[in-house]
Amino acid sequence: MNGTGKSPENYQIEDFVTDESFINFFFQLNPRDIAFWESWILSHPENARQFEAAKQMLRNLSLSISEEERDQELSKLKKAIGDENFQDLKNIPSISKPLQWKKTRRRKFARLLLPFLLLLAVAVYLLTNYFPNHPDQFLVKSNDSSKPIVITLSDGTIVTLAPQSVFRYPAEFGTKERKVYLEGEAQFHVSRDAAHPFKVYQGNIIATVLGTVFNVKKQAGDSVLLVELIEGKLKVEAGNDEGQPAQSIILNPDERAMYNSNNKNLHKEIWKSQPDLLRTMQKVLFRHDNFEEIASQIKTDFGIILINKSNKKDWRFTGEFTNATAKEIIDNICLVEGLSSQMNGDSILIKSLP
Known about the structure:
Strand content: 25-35%
CATH topology of the largest domain: Jelly Rolls
Order of helices and strands: HHHHHHEEEEEEEEEEEEEHEEHEE
Largest sheet: 12 strands, mixed
Shape: elongated
Structural class: alpha+beta
CATH architecture of the largest domain: Sandwich
């Protein structure tokens, strides 16, 4: 057997293809091994799937590997495992007419194939456990409507995307940084995670979040990009032409960064978000609307961002308001839904009751 200490009844595909006895059976090299495996599979039909898959793997390797393909696969293994000690494997022959092989050549191939398959099994293990597929598979959200839309990211960050804006973000964030890409305008309520910086890219600008709420604004055709900080702390960087030092500034609340793409200048200035809390609407109507629909309506009518920080996510509300402020509307919704609200700059946070 292959020296793993396993019984064949517990074999996986990789155990079969790295077992010298099984290789001898497949290539019809040893009568004892042939008899053993033919008898064994008749007694263990529950292992037929792995058994046949292992035979197919050996068949694919022996029938379809050209010298060029072999060298490519060896190169991949070198890169994945980091081991350059593959010289003996270069002697593995290509097989174009396997039925014309002599038994001595089959024996030689089997001996050379065994270390290759062992390395292949190791490579599969390493790639599966130490080099997983990168989770940053980007989704694209385009807001072609006339109202803002609310997007909740996998880490709990809430993004309010302005009309005529495009946002790219991963379905799941990676293990180091949380990177997103914006074209247009959006407000970000970022979930705090010091170990995984949150970075927003737009053009030459990179905004690195240090636990914060902020706006990024740039109209189509406009040469000026604004990054407005509402809460927390924010690092804003501007990449310049090659050979020129990058510009970097730190924003505190009530400050904003202005970047002019014409002169490549980045600077900050005092800024204050002043939502009109006394503004009223003659009529605001909700008909079985979910949170995203309510948030979009509040943003359109009052210019105030609505953020759901509660544990209650799946709810709908029906109601009609006349000559009411945004705060009055949200307070009434929270009363009905058993929630609470809190003003925070130009935002209203919805929270669970204590």
